[in-house]
């Protein structure tokens, strides 16, 4: 085998290797976009359920104006949030506001027994589970991408094509706090 042919084969193999690594980065980047889109879909579903829940509770607890305003503000903040960090913070604020709303609902047995309210509560709970799964999937794909950027030899190709690490969807300080259970 001639040295020229051997050189062409080696260069061809290197080019093929670089192209395959570049394509794997692009594939993971698309998966990250898809995973973020799933989080967005579930959060929008959650946002759409909230006005129905608020209106249902309002019918029973007309004097709880501040709680309704907090839920509405938190919902608006989530709708306008951008990026994993802002969305995570807005999602935490909305979760806290909803906890207050459901605490009010606990004080009204006839509301808790209403079928429409129970259905809305179940839908919201299902959506919460889907949001949690979507966040987990997003973070798994981001981990895979970020890991490829940091390990040799793919880090060389990532640097050459200017791939940068993606941001995780992280729990906020409020979400990390231990739940306090008080039986009084």
TrEMBL record:
Q: Where in the cell is it found?
A: Membrane
Membrane topology qualifier: Single-pass membrane protein
Principal location listed in the UniProt entry: membrane
Q: Known Pfam families for this protein?
A: LemA (PF04011)
Q: Which InterPro entries match?
A: LemA-like_dom_sf (IPR023353), MamQ_LemA (IPR007156)
Keywords assigned by UniProt?
Membrane, Transmembrane, Transmembrane helix
List cellular component terms (GO). membrane
| Stored Gene3D superfamilies | LemA-like domain
- Family membership noted in the UniProt record: Belongs to the LemA family.
What is the protein name given in its UniProt record? LemA family protein
**What is the native source organism of this protein?**
candidate division WWE3 bacterium RBG_19FT_COMBO_34_6
């Amino acid at each position: 085998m001639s040295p020229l042919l051997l050189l062409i084969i080696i260069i061809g193999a290197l080019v093929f290797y670089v192209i395959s690594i570049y394509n794997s980065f692009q594939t993971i980047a698309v998966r990250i976009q898809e995973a973020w889109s799933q989080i967005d879909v579930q959060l929008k579903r959650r946002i759409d359920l909230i006005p129905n829940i608020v209106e249902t509770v309002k019918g029973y607890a007309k004097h709880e104006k501040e709680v309704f305003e907090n839920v509405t503000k938190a919902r608006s903040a989530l709708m306008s949030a951008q990026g994993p960090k802002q969305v995570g913070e807005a999602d935490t604020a909305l979760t806290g506001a909803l906890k207050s709303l459901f605490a009010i609902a606990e004080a009204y047995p006839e509301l808790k027994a209403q079928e429409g309210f129970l259905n809305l509560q179940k839908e919201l709970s299902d959506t919460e589970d889907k949001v949690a799964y979507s966040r987990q999937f997003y973070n798994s794909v981001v981990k895979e991408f970020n890991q490829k950027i940091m390990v040799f030899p793919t880090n060389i190709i990532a640097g050459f094509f200017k791939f940068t690490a993606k941001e995780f969807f992280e729990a906020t300080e409020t979400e990390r706090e231990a739940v306090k259970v008080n039986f009084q």
